Amino acid sequence: MQFEASNLIPVVPELFILSLACLVLVIDLFIDDEQRIFTYALTQVGLVFAIFITLSVGQTEAQIVFDGSYIRDGMSDVLKVSIYIVTIGAFLYSKEYLVEHGLFKGEYYVLGLFAVLGMMVMVSAQSFLTAYLGLELLSLSLYALVAFDRDSKTGSEAAMKYFVLGAIASGMLLYGISMIYGATGALNFTTVTTALMGTGMEDIVLVFGLVFVVIGLAFKLGAVPFHMWMPDVYHGAPTAVAQFLSSAPKIAAFALAMRLLVDGMLPLHSDWQQMLVILAILSMALGNVIAIAQTNIKRMLAYSTISHVGFIMMGILAGTSEGYSASMFYAIIYAVTSLGAFGIIILLSKKGFEAENLDDYKGLHERSPWFAAMMMLFMFSMAGVPPTVGFWAKLFVLDAVVSVELTWVALVGVFFSIIGAFYYIRIIKLMYFDKAENVLPVIGNLDTRIALSVNGVLMLALGLFPAALLTICVRAIGS
Amino acid sequence: MEKIYLAIAFTPLVGAIIAGFWGARIGRAGAHWVTSVGVGISAFLSIIVLLGFISGHREVFNGSVYTWMISDGITFEVGFLVDSLTAMMMAVVTFVSFCVHIYTIGYMAHDEENWPAGSRAGTNSYQRFFSYISLFTFSMLLLVMSNNFMQLFFGWEAVGLVSYLLIGFWSNRETAIFANMKAFLVNRVGDFGFLLGIAAVAMYFNTVDYAEVFAKAPELANTQIQIWGDTSWSLMTVICILLFVGAMGKSAQVPLHVWLPDSMEGPTPISALIHAATMVTAGIFMVARMSPLYELSETALSFILIIGATTAFFTGLIGLVQNDIKRVVAYSTLSQLGYMTVALGASAYAAGIFHLMTHAFFKALLFLAAGSVIIAMHHEQDMRKMGGLKKYMPITYWTSLIGSLALIGLPGFSGFFSKDSIIEAVHHSQIAGAGYAYLMVILGVFVTALYSFRMFFMVFHGEERMDEHTKHHLHESPKVVTVPLIMLAIPSVLIGGMTISGVVFGDWFKDVIHVAPAHDVLKEIGFHGTIGFFFHGLFALPTLLAAAGVGVAYMIYMKNPEIADKIKSAASPLYALLDKKYFFDELYQAVFAGGSRWLGKILWKAGDQTLIDGLVVNGSARSVGFFAGIIRQIQTGYLYHYAFAMILGLLLLLALFVN
Fold it and tell me: Do the chains contact at B624 and A292, CB–CB below 8 Å?
């Protein structure tokens, strides 16, 4: 591999985040607990800068660097910016929570930034190894974050489970990659694609490889039956971490699926399409049905994530650029919605009290009509009720699937969405029609309240004007 | 260019939002300032736009502001079409709205007295009221400025919503709630037709944009469609009649007129603004806007003509027996809307719009004057308890007189010009039903004069029939009330004579309103200048009938009050028929309200409770819940179970795909 300085220009955002992470790590060593706010501010400002850097580095045509193992294109730009924004939101919401729970430490932000870096690498991967590298960087940071509250037993247990299962999944993914390497003799996507065009599915090693790669992906996405870590991790991790975990990494997981399956193995489309159909249907079915039986809102949201992942996979399996952009739209919208829903949980959680049981939401309307309304918007958006944006996200995906003659898959999706609507609307019923068990007013910092309001109104605004974001997604996929 | 239109439409919305959401914080004065200034700006800019069109230097604007979505090749947009018709409507709407805003400051000043002590709905009701009327102005502007059917429908429903909210504004009153429910339901009937009409347009034209639809209309003029069985219908007739059904609901035409008299339960300012000057004329405006479509269907025009003529005469008759001051004005509004509709049916769209404009001024004036009387009478609305108010309320008296004279069409006043052009137009019309319509509108003139001056004499002249306490407190209303009266009185007198030559007989609506040469009745009238029109009308039949009406009213209610009772007993079946408003309410109550309640009950008991709730909903919910309960057991919490599930998944996929 030859080193060229011009190779570095497309990766400036990655270099920036890496330096930022190191800088935050070092600076944090030299400040006291009282000044920890500085670490936080530096991280946030850095992430805002990263948005501008990414946008200014971006061009219309794709650039492939480092001997074809790294790519910067429209999709990577849009997804990276979404990841920054969602991360900024997650850090913003979680600050108060971390302070109150004694978790307001520099490591949180360092790990967060490394996770962001890992996601960026995933988003821009153009070879199996780069993708794997990014994935591991993300996963390792997340394992540590889940166990961030060291003294919490459930937290450690969740981290342990996550780690072990994650290791198995990584093993499977690597195993799959090695078989594909064996069959094609290459790791970077362009070469693999060319090689696959010749062989097709006759090669049994290739089928093995594909199955293992898809399983690795399914684990990261949280698709049934590789989903079991999610409820336990969401439940066990500190709410702030669960929030982060449920938002930005889902965008990255979407990108990983796009890179591995579409960029890397498009000639095998008819095979992975069928695998995704199975996984998507199982996810939507199981996710939505089990969510109904949950009494803990974090677990409920975990199952809800599983069902949404089904939808994201449904768009990808369509195998058309319409489907990809619909999925991308869905992933971004889901991340933002989930961010808001967890934001409300965080807002209601106070020192020594986690608002994680459904009963804690009874009569929220009496305590805070505004935030009850925001929560209602999040829930409606997740359920896909117009005029919130969740409706459009679902509609675009369904439309894409119907247009490739997989109407029955779309029908299954709609069927389980209807079942799923029940548990979202149950929250609304609890908030508006039940008597409050405690009548404490809802208090929160001004920045949290503003961010939550913006987040909530965004659900409605994007729902009324979905064209702008959709155009961005379509253009990103098209380039 | 576009910015000024955006500003006109959205300033009232801003005012409405501020007063609505932050009403408690900005207080009463803040609320009325922010909304009045918003509507004031909008009115000022609208008048600039109107002047631009009058002087001819402003071009027609037709453009989209925002594309909402494109679905199946049909583009849904927010867009403005501003031409001379729109400019005129904008100016009328914002000007009347502005007057009403100012008037409301006085009318609602003591609104807290209208609510029971400590009522939650009564808190900040003053601010809420201002928010609603500003919101109404916004909705109405979107309606008239629209360049496509979708936005038209949005505006249509939005004004309907605000009307509903305002009729039931005093939500503690049983009658108000009944009235707003009634208005809502009756409008549903109309809007259903309207929506079907829009759907038909979208289906056959494949677009909802006015310009494209109008351009394509002649091609489809002879299209026949099958709706039911084998009978074929002319597409244009179907579309036009369906759209007109919407107009019948909104503009209260027989038989969908029943909601308008009841809407008087709302505060008087909105009766003036919404239920007299602007919203109820939306149907008239819509038909005029769609003239390129209506001109293609003579059947639809005849239908409109007959409905309008029936409304004009028969609702006027009911006005003769009403004793509530606002209801008299309400029936008068119905009758005048009938006149406008007649003009549309006769293809004299310009005359209809012209009457819409003059009517907006003098009817708003009459309503506000009635409101002024109501304030002075401490919210007593029964005319039998009034009388002799002339000496207590001079400004209200004189402005009412102007309004009434304009309404009955005294030569020289606005109403004269507009009503006479309609009558002349119908006289020249050749389409089916024109003869009936001519008879109705001519007789209507007499009736109009009679009920107007019956009310006028009963309120302002004669013996003082109020109780001592009320009499003691009688005085002229404050300036915020009387100034709008004067502001409206001026156009009530002048605007007709000033603009008739341009609007009705000139080329003000050239290229905007399309009239087929065979229907062009206005051209046949032979207009020779405003003065000529005035003298021609001075000794014509309508003027004589109006004078007769006033004379009869004078005889009965000033000279010999006992005549009224004699007539009442002599013609008691007729009186009962009018008093019961031709039994429309009873019929609807029994058939539609009763019938749907009966149907609802059956569906509720048999369909909902047993079948849906019992079997489908609870049954499936129970089974889903049951399965959820079982499947959740899979999530044991044990790591090795999780890993096992993953391996199973792996085996499943391998087994399926490796062969």
Answer: yes
Element (H, E) at B70: strand B61-71
**What tens digit of pLDDT does each residue of B13-65 get?**
999 999 988 888 888 888 899 999 999 999 999 999 999 988 888 888 888 88
Shortest distance, CA A160 to any CA of chain B (angstroms): 9
Q: Nearest to residue B100, comparing CAs of B120, B58, B130, B127?
A: B130
3-state secondary structure of A449: helix
Tell me the torsion sign for CA atoms A78, A82, A83, A88: positive
Cross-chain residue pair B653–A228, CB shorter than 8 Å: no
> What's the CA gap between B212 and B208, in Å, rounded?
8
Q: What is the pairing mode between strands A63-65 and B61-71?
A: unpaired
Q: What distance lies between CA B297 and its chain's CA centroid?
A: 25
CB distance B67–A467 less than 8 Å? yes
How buried is residue B478: exposed, middle or buried, by Cβ count under 10 Å (0-12/13-18/19+)?
middle
For Cα atoms A335, A336, A340, give the angle at the middle one, nearest 5 degrees: 115
Buried b (16+ CB within 10 A) or exposed e, B35-51: bbebbbbbbebbeebbe
Per residue, what are the HEC states of B17-38? HHHHHCHHHHHHHHHHHHHHHH
Distance (Å, whole) CA B521 – CA B352: 13
| DSSP alpha helix (H) spans, A101-188 | 106-124, 128-146, 153-184
In the A/B pair of chains, how many CB contacts fall below 8 A?
86
Q: Show the domain range for A184.
A: 5-478
List CB contacts (< 8 A) between B624 and chain A: 289, 292, 419, 422
Do B654 and A210 count as a contact with CB atoms less than 8 A apart? no
* Alpha helices by DSSP H, B429-478: 434-460, 468-473
Query: For B269-328, how does the pLDDT look when each residue is reduced to its tens digit (9 = 90+)?
Result: 888 888 888 888 899 999 999 999 998 888 899 999 999 999 999 888 888 888 888 888
Output the DSSP codes for A217-234: HHHHHT-TTS-THHHHHH
For strand A70-72 and strand B61-71, is the pairing parallel, antiparallel, or unpaired? unpaired
Distances (CA, A) of B416 to B251, B406, B492, B525: 22, 7, 10, 16
How many distinct structural domains can be found in chain A? 1
Q: Does A169 touch chain B (CB under 8 A)?
A: yes
Q: Could you tell me if B417 and B304 are in contact, meaning their C-beta atoms sit under 8 angstroms apart? A: no
Residue A208 with chain B: CB contacts under 8 Å: 654, 658
Whole-angstrom Cα distance, residue B398 to residue B366?
A: 11
Q: What is the pTM of this model?
A: 0.70
Spatial distance between the Cα atoms of A371 and A374, rounded to a whole number of angstroms: 5
> Going by C-beta distance under 8 Å and a sequence separation of 6 or more, which residues neighbour residue B200?
B235, B238, B239, B242
CA distance B116 to A455: 40
The rounded distance, in Å, linking the Cα atoms of A199 and A207 is: 11
Torsion of the alpha carbons at A26, A32, A38 and A40, rounded to the nearest 10 = 80
The kind and range of the H/E element at A204 are helix A204-221
User: What gap in Å lies between CA A101 and CA A96, rounded to an integer?
Assistant: 9
Q: With an 8 Å Cβ cutoff, is A211 touching chain B?
A: yes
CA dihedral A300, A302, A303, A308 (to 10 degrees): 120
Structure tokens at A39: 């670490």
Task: Take residue A383 and report the two structure tokens written for it.
Answer: 């359920």
Question: How many helices, marked H, and strands, marked E, lie in chain B?
Answer: 29, 4
Rounded Cα gap, residues B519 and B522, in angstroms: 9
Q: Tens digit of pLDDT for each residue in B592-610?
A: 888 888 888 888 887 777 8
CA distance B420 to B539: 12
What are the backbone angles phi and psi of residue A194, rounded to the nearest 5°? -60, -40
Identify the three-state secondary structure at position B232: strand
Q: Is the ipTM of this complex over 0.90?
A: no
